[in-house]
Amino acid sequence: MLGQNELVKIFPDFADLVQPSGIDLELDKIYQQTSEGSLIDNEKNLPDLKELPGPIYTLKPHTAYLASIKRKVKIPKGYTMLYLPRSTLLRSFVSVQTAVGDPGFYGTLMFMIYNHGDFEYKIKSGDRIAQAVVFKVEGSGEYSGSYQEEEE
Ligand SMILES: Nc1ccn([C@H]2C[C@H](O)[C@@H](COP(=O)(O)OP(=O)(O)OP(=O)(O)O)O2)c(=O)n1
């Protein structure tokens, strides 16, 4: 796992968010699902989304949302990222569901956020919701899937 000094070098755009062993990730926007979706024979039909008005979002009890992360991330070849929720959210009955950040990925991260509690939870854009931890990958390839964005 990479520590602070390496992370600042490899992810200069996130230098102010680097922690001793990871990178804090800030909430950008929250989206609600507005249509059905499917995954059949690897054909993805993603649900339609409606961006909710911010900057303070109210998460209804027992409801799932998508949460975009501020700043686009570039994961260089030879590195991979795992994303873990901020424990303050877990202590508040809110989970952040994530997956793997592939070597070569460039774009906006999109996590699922779920309020398991019986009460509303308010969260503001810009607050930290997760932490990325980064590992070296020996002999890695590069991501070129459907969520890859053009680098500016
Ligand atoms: N919670 C997450 C996890 C990952 N990613 C980004 C970084 C990953 O490199 C990229 C693709 O993630 P996956 O490989 O998990 O996605 P799929 O396998 O569904 O996509 P594809 O079919 O394009 O490989 O999406 C994301 O936006 N949100």
Helix content: under 10%
CATH architecture: Distorted Sandwich
The ligands bound in this entry are:
2'-deoxycytidine-5'-triphosphate
**Head-to-tail CA distance between termini:** 28 Å
Biggest sheet record: 9 strands, antiparallel
Radius of gyration: 16 Å
N to C succession of SSEs: HEEEEEEEEEHEEEEEE
- At the fold tier of CATH, the topology name is Deoxyuridine 5'-Triphosphate Nucleotidohydrolase, Chain A
What does this 3D model show about the protein?
The two termini are 28 Å apart. The model has no long low-confidence stretch (mean pLDDT 97). Strands 1, 2, 5, 7, 9, 10, 11, 13 and 15 form a nine-stranded antiparallel β-sheet that branches. A two-stranded antiparallel ribbon has the order 3-4. With 152 residues, the protein is mostly beta strands. The protein has a single domain, classed as Distorted Sandwich (Deoxyuridine 5'-Triphosphate Nucleotidohydrolase, Chain A), CATH 2.70.40. The chain is built from two helices and 15 strands. Strand 1 and strand 2 form a beta hairpin. The site of 2'-deoxycytidine-5'-triphosphate has 13 residues, from strand 11 and strand 13.
